[in-house]
Amino acid sequence: MNSPNHASGQLAGPMLGNTFRWWHVLASLLLVIAVFFPLLEKNPSHQNLVILMLMAAQLGVAWNIVGGYAGQVSLGQAAFYGLGAYTSTLLFTRLGISPWLAIPAGGLVSAGVSVLVGWSCFRLKGHYFAMATIAVAEIIQVIFTNWDYAGAAVGLNLPMEEGWKTLTFSSKEPYYYLSLALLLLTLCVNWAIEKSFLGYYFRAIKDEPDAACSLGVNLRRYKLFAFAISSFFTALGGSLYAQKELYIDPGSVLQTGLSIKMALVAILGGVGTLFGPLFGAVILTLIEEGSRILFGGSGRGTDLIVYAALIVLIAVYYPNGVVGWLRGFVGRRNAVRVGPASGAAR
Fold it and tell me: Which whole number is the average pLDDT over 88-109?
């Protein structure tokens, strides 16, 4: 005769398997919808809203590598976002280098700078590291604000030469697919990290740094890996923003509020999870754009107030974010189903 625990395990296994398959079906359905969305929705404003969600999600996924997996809370990622935007734009406008080469070059420059910054800043821990990253971002913003070659405070304009060669378009659809492709690429890299030894090292550094060090993990080296990878993909997001808007200045790509948004996207959705930043991006983009529509120019900064309120609510009630809440909800439903069923089996 089967024991209660054995019966419960037999019932729980299929339920968890069904839940797993359900998530795969949902993810596949969402991917199909995402691919065909521009063909179904022709309104440019609606397309632009979804583009903003995709771009915010990509930045949140990039931040998640260093802040979620490795546990190093960087609040200065706007520095690398801006470096990517400025590097690709300067290479394109000043030297005539194709954006297809300039954009990855911007990512490499940002990754290199992040290694230099991290080499000294990773001597600090906790909130001291976060404060140091803010200081670095502010310094870089001051440099570009006063650098005449980079347009100083006036900024830079990109030439309107439409086509895939220059990645400049008059419609929203190409930018939508570029944003979607960059998000999928960043998600794939995150998934590969999560399943590789790097993911285990990053989580060990986050949860038990002393134990990881005692086992031979070089903390600074792997923190630098996480920081460089995160900065590279953050810079790609900045370069795509520059191509989309055809204009950048220090206020648009180097502001501190942008760094906070990147972190909050991941924290709200579920820090350290693969798909958490997607949920966070949808929620925050709707809040940001909704406040602009509702309050207009008189409501500038309203989204920052909402961001602050969300940080407090998440810290107090939902520290694991939306994904953590969903996992708990599914777990409770499975437990309720298993309870009566295991009783009947007994």
Answer: 95
